[in-house]
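Hello,

Our lab assistant flagged a job as stuck in the queue for most of the afternoon. It eventually completed. Since we weren't sure the result was trustworthy after the delay, we are filing this so someone can double-check. Below is the sequence as submitted and the structure that was eventually returned. Let us know if re-running is recommended.
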Amino acid sequence: MGPAPAATAVTGVATAESAAAATAVAGPAVTAKAVVAPAADAGPAATATATAEPAPAFPAVAGPAGTATADARSAVTAAPAPRSRFRPWRLLPGPRHTPFTFGYAVVLAGTSLLGRYADPELVDALLRGSSTDVAHLAHNPLLVLVASALWIAGGITSPYAIAFLLVLTALERRIGGLRTAGVFLLGHVVATLATEVPVGLSVLAGHLPGSSLHRLDYGISFGVAASVGALAGLLTSWLRWAVLAGFGGMLVEDLIAFTDPMTNWGHLLAFAVGVCVWPLLRRSRPFRAPARPASRAAAG
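-- returned structure --
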């Protein structure tokens, strides 16, 4: 019975070496944990054991189908839209986008060139035949109301000629050519009648001489003033008040100067007409389809 402890020890050593060899062979794929019990405590039946545990693996968890695509679309949609670049030529009329203003400007350029280079007697006769004075309004009101708006008082370099191009172009781009023509004509007609009718009544009452019935009156300034007032209602808040204060203050200053009170009153009245049509223009602005989302465009 004596050799049994030695055999047990030898067996334990051999078992431990085998476990160590197995651990070395297993490599990084397994985690070797060797537990060797001391010989004194193990007893004859104790052996060194090597327990190999697999390394914890964490495979990628696949989300629901289409998650990556949805995230990409969300990123595209959330991206801010690029700002449109300022294009100066959009301030001027063109035959495609602002046909009314463009055509009207061509007519005004033609009459301005005619007034500058044609025979003075011919030009004077045309202007007097187009005048919206009381005498012409009493006999042929429709003709002179239209004809008087075909001339620019002061020529093509007049401040109202420049305002015509800028204001009516901006207004037509927002409300269309038909409504722009309506605003211009409304201001022109209302302001003309509001200033000429009192002249006729004053002549009848004896407060003005009879020559006032043939007072030369033509130009586009009343229509331009009405268009400025209408355009102000379609601008942003701060720009609206800037236009009202700036243009309105200029008209009041002209009235205080009292150089041409009838025309100055007509400008203020036409400006007020443009302001009064704000509710109509805001309700009747042409519908524009919303921009197509970028995500849908990418998907399609």
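-- support follow-up --
The delay was a queue issue, not a problem with the job. The result is valid. The CA atoms of residues 230 and 274 lie 4 Å apart. Confidence is low (pLDDT under 50) at residues 1-66, 287-291, 294-300.
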